[in-house]
Amino acid sequence: MSRLSQIAPEQANPQQAELFTAVKSKLGRVPNLLRALANSTAALRGYLEFSGALSNGSGLDPKQREIVALTVAQANGCEYCLAAHSTIGKMVGLSPEAIEAARRADGFDESSRAVARFAGEVVKSRGRVEDEQLDAFRAAGFNDDAVTEVVAHVALNVFTNYFNNLAETDVDFPDAAPLATEESEAAACSTACGCTA
User: Fold this and answer.
1) For FRET with 85, which of 77, 101, 108, 128 sits at 20 to 30 Å CA-CA?
2) Where are the domains of the chain?
3) Structure confidence at residue 102 (pLDDT)
4) Cα dist from 25 to 22, 30, 31, 169, whole Å
């Protein structure tokens, strides 16, 4: 159960109602994250404006934006964001394997791998990414527009991860499948092929 109020649309004040109407027109509903963020109209408005601006950016495509979100959510242990972005990731065309790879800060091809690894390094280093890692991201075909947008998406997702972790927001998306651990993967391999991995 959420530790913060999740404002019901029918109980919203005029400012909250205006923002909820905009959200509902795009998503068809108001997710619990946004209902909880509505405790501060300023926070909700800021989140919507920042995420809206980033969704119109040219540095990352929709799949790459979801890869960043999944990498960051896994790093921060945010169950709400893992569920939400696993669902959204499928909607923009990420396969279950691509979603799992992103959660492991990896990818299914050179481009997605570069995005996930760079986002993971931004989180891990708190932005103090080494020249070698920045050069590797650029070598994968990304320019400074993409570098800036990865950092912006990391920041946006850290905000929602921390908020959801604190609020314990009720998850209103299908739960994200747990990642297989190396130990369970080795056991599955041993059972399937008889090896001693």
Assistant:
1) 128
2) 1-56, 61-165+173-197
3) 98
4) 5, 9, 12, 22
Across 84-111, average pLDDT = 97
Ranking 86-100, 160-174, 183-197 by mean pLDDT, the lowest is: 183-197
Q: How far apart are CA 184 and CA 167, in angstroms?
A: 31
Whole-structure pTM value? 0.89
Look at residue 39 and tell me whether its pLDDT is greater than 90: yes
* Residues in contact with 9: Cβ distance below 8 Å, sequence separation at least 6, in sequence order: 17, 20, 24, 30, 35
Q: Which stretches of 59-144 are assigned E, i.e. beta strand?
A: none
- Residue 148 CA, distance from chain mean position: 17
Taking the CA atoms of residue 26, residue 178, residue 47 and residue 130 in that order, the dihedral angle to the nearest 10 degrees is: -130
Q: How far apart are CA 170 and CA 33, in angstroms?
A: 8
Query: Which strand (E) or helix (H) includes residue 176?
Result: none
Candidates 1.20.1290.10, 1.10.3370.10, 2.40.30.170, 3.40.47.10; correct CATH number of 61-165+173-197? 1.20.1290.10
Q: 116 is written with which tokens?
A: 């996930």
Q: Does residue 189 have a pLDDT over 50?
A: no
Average pLDDT over residues 27-38: 96
**Cβ–Cβ contacts within 10 Å for residue 92, how many?**
14
SS3 content of the chain, % helix, strand, coil (to 5): 70, 0, 30
